[in-house]
């Protein structure tokens, strides 16, 4: 079981981001029992919302009920919880809080792949300013680490070809964590290139 500290540091460099990562079964370390309970409840509720949204998207794609839950192994879904701390930056035009990327927002890369391009991943970024501290709380829900993420078979049959190659979700996470965040690097990695 992994251990995670939740206390934010008092001082960081202007471009610093402090991530906190967790998934089901992770022990949250904090001096505050109340904070631990709040984080765990927030995580549980966000998983419920994610599953509900995925059920609606699956229905919209014309997939059988339960298809997305089974294929993406949502009973063992991956969850990432991050608290990003951005102190005031004296030269915000010279710094980026977090460069543009498409990791886990809105439909996310995995859903663009799973939907065979029907849903699009959305690029987003974090910016710093010179007046106020900014803290963002991010929670991302994804397939189980060992789930194979690829275009849904019924959609490939309907569309005539897959737009992306299948891969284990943990491969995506490892690639994302090992690369500098730079736009759609991981999404491009999964796409099948036309010759």
TrEMBL record:
It comes from the Eukaryota. It holds the Pfam family 2OG-FeII_Oxy. This is Isopenicillin N synthase-like Fe(2+) 2OG dioxygenase domain-containing protein. GO terms for molecular function: metal ion binding. Residues 79-104, 105-139 form the Isopenicillin N synthase-like Fe(2+) 2OG dioxygenase domain. The keyword Iron applies. The lineage of its organism: Eukaryota, Viridiplantae, Streptophyta, Embryophyta, Tracheophyta. Keywords: Iron, Metal-binding. InterPro entries: IPNS-like_FE2OG_OXY, IPNS-like_sf, Plant_2OG-oxidoreductases. The keyword Metal-binding applies.
């Amino acid at each position: 079981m992994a251990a995670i500290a939740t206390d934010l540091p008092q001082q960081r460099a202007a471009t610093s981001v402090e991530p906190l990562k967790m998934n089901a079964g992770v022990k949250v370390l904090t001096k505050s029992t109340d904070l631990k309970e709040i984080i765990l409840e927030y995580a549980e509720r966000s998983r419920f919302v994610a599953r509900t949204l995925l059920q609606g998207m699956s229905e919209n794609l014309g997939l059988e009920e339960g298809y997305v839950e089974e294929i993406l192994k949502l009973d063992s879904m991956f969850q990432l919880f991050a608290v990003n701390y951005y102190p005031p930056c004296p030269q915000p035009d010279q710094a980026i809080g977090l460069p543009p990327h498409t990791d886990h927002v809105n439909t996310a890369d995995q859903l663009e792949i799973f939907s065979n391009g029907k849903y699009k991943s959305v690029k987003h970024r974090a910016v710093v300013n010179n007046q106020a501290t900014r803290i963002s709380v991010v929670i991302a829900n994804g397939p189980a680490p060992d789930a194979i993420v690829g275009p849904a078979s019924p959609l490939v049959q309907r569309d005539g070809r897959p737009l992306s190659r299948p891969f284990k979700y943990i491969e995506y996470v490892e690639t994302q964590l090992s690369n500098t965040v730079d736009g759609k690097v991981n999404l491009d990695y999964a796409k099948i290139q036309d010759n």
